[in-house]
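Our preliminary data section would be incomplete without showing what the modeling component actually yields. Below, a chain of 235 amino acids is followed by its predicted structure, encoded as tokens that our downstream tools consume directly.
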Amino acid sequence: MVAAGCAGMALHVGVVEARFLLAFFFVAVLGCGSIAFHATLQHEAQMADELPMLWAAMTTTFILLENKDGPVPVVGRWLGPALVAHALLTSCATFFASGTAQFVLFHVSFGSAEFFSLYQIYLIYRRHVDAAPAAPDTLAIALCWRRGIASYGVGLFCWQFDLQSCWVLAVWWPRVSGLPNPQLHAWWHLLVSSGFYQLITLAAYDRLLLLGKRPRLRWAAGVLPFVSDDAAKDA
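Predicted structure:
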């Protein structure tokens, strides 16, 4: 997760707006918090693991809602402060709550922002595919979307299966098969961070296009997508 966040910042600095770098930054912070939580199992470390997830989701929500070129309408000027206030309020409520209340507060806030963002990125994907299905960049967009959403979906499945069937994976499976626990929770971290990286990269491509740039989706080492601005290179 730290690597995904740092790669997103390194590959896109000077190309995309600060909001995208902030989203990648929160993924890196989340990775550090996750290390702390899994190493200590303390409540404060758990918050360092969970709250950056909320902040990353709120940043992505802002990216996708405030996505128009030209002057920002009066209502739009309040969007950023409103999301910050909501994130701070939810963070405080989550930090000081415990048990079921903490679980519900966090997952309702994070889950609603998460699924809203996934749906909005799906609409970006569909808009490009429907407009020019055979264009080279459209094929790259489709690949980025499919890889991203597949990673996200499989990651969510791994997390839920591990959460609901811990005894099966940790006790029954090793006893019956002789093989170790497949550690699906670890796969959840890997797959979701990969999925988030690819989907936010797709949103960055669409944003640059809206701003009148000439973005291209390229692949570092043939596997890691990133956005370049060809208009800036020509200038």
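The first helix runs from residue 2 to 12. The longest strand covers residues 215-220. Preliminary results of this kind motivate Aim 1 of the renewal.
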